[in-house]
Write a structure and sequence with these properties.
By secondary structure, the protein is of the alpha/beta class. It has twelve helices and 14 strands. β4 and β5 (95-103) form a beta hairpin. The radius of gyration is 21 Å and the shape is elongated.
């Protein structure tokens, strides 16, 4: 699995449909695509030579133009609570991060979709790193490949990674086609076979892509809301200036069309001390979400160096929870996991060749507000 030879086609970049088309162009039968997909993702072959039910001639022909190319693991660090964080180096030298969170009834892998992030949410460490590029399909699905290889099944044979959330570095819907293809492999019975209820995409609210996603794939949706009104959300999630809350809520209604994975939308709400956590904010949030089938996920803010925000107190979070709960809303408070290894929500940073000059932008913002 050399990272040299990047000019060769990476077989991990192909969904089942694209693998079928790729092989048909070369005169191979459609069933060969299924064989390759199984070898790549179920058997986790690291070279074409391991694919023993494929003829030597076909393997030799493929080897001339294609290879299996994965990110390189440069750090695999475990938290005291069992959380794992990996730092993965890509062929161009950029690094991304992914996190595995074990719980009693599930194991959730948090996967990145971009090197850095093209958005500039002010409370997120990834945004501070700037933006370099979108990840390829192979770099996205390669994260699940590595986690599956590293985290072996339990003694009963149960899979360790039962859920995948596209909540790592980046805005998934700004890397639309690659993310859709990667998620299709997550769902594919010949690849990872995850339930569509157990694959979740988290977006800051890129409405046109939300509408396209609705037509392309049936997975769960989470929306990074973080504020009950446009004035505050404009500051916390600046993409709101382009796609305001009223339009975002309408897009959420469109998304909930009765398909299996779409019984509700998760609204993510980071709890920032003195910013968005008052009783008034809670009551306003109830009105904002009225009539929409949602589950509200309150996320205690996870600090990172140079941030100006602080985490809401436990008492304030509990009071916010109570107001929503007493109004009949489905609400939960996310348990902070992996913060001792900077693996908690909002803390992923990686090493980004910042083409967006975002680090300079944030430095100027800090000077202006100090």
């Amino acid at each position: 699995m050399s990272q040299a030879g990047a000019k060769k086609i990476n077989l991990l970049d192909m969904s089942s449909e694209k693998m079928k088309a790729f092989l048909q162009e070369r005169g191979e039968k459609p069933f060969r695509a299924t064989q390759l997909i199984k070898w790549l993702h179920q058997h986790q072959a690291e070279s074409l030579d391991q694919m023993t039910n494929i003829s030597k001639a076909m393997r030799a022909n493929l080897a001339e133009i294609a290879e299996i190319r994965l990110p390189e693991v440069v750090l695999d660090k475990a938290s005291a609570d069992g959380t794992h964080k990996w730092v993965l180096r890509l062929a161009d030298g950029n690094c991304i991060e992914m996190v595995f969170i074990p719980e009693s009834d599930r194991g959730t892998l948090c996967v990145s979709s971009q090197v850095g992030c093209a958005l500039d949410c002010t409370f997120c460490s990834t945004a501070r790193q700037g933006f370099s590029r979108n990840l390829t399909v192979g770099e996205i699905i390669g994260q699940l490949w590595i986690a599956k290889k590293t985290l072996q099944p339990d003694p009963l044979g149960n899979r360790v990674v039962s859920n995948v959330v596209m909540m790592g570095m980046g805005e998934p819907l700004l890397n639309f086609e690659n993310v859709i293809d990667a998620m299709s492999l997550m769902l594919d019975d010949n690849a990872y076979g995850l339930s569509k209820r157990r694959v979740t995409l988290s977006t800051s609210g890129v409405i046109p892509a939300m509408d396209r996603m609705r037509e392309r794939i049936d997975v769960s949706l989470a929306v990074s809301l973080h504020a009950p009104n446009d004035e505050l959300r404009d500051k916390l999630v600046p993409v709101n200036k382009k796609y305001p809350i009223k339009d975002l809520i309408a897009a959420c209604h469109r998304f909930l069309d009765g398909k299996a994975a779409r019984e509700h939308i998760t609204m993510e709400y980071v709890m920032l001390d003195g910013v968005n956590d008052s009783d008034e904010h809670a009551r306003e949030l109830i009105q904002t979400l009225k009539g929409l089938s949602v589950k509200v996920n309150l996320i205690p803010f996870n600090p990172f160096p140079e941030t100006r925000y602080k985490r809401s107190s436990n008492n304030r979070i509990h009071r916010f929870y109570e107001i929503l709960n007493n109004a009949g809303m489905v609400v939960m408070t996310r348990k902070t996991r992996g913060d001792d290894i900077d693996a908690a929500c909002g803390q992923l940073a990686g090493q980004v060749n910042d083409r967006s000059r975002r680090t300079i932008h944030f430095a100027k913002m800090e000077q202006e507000t100090s």
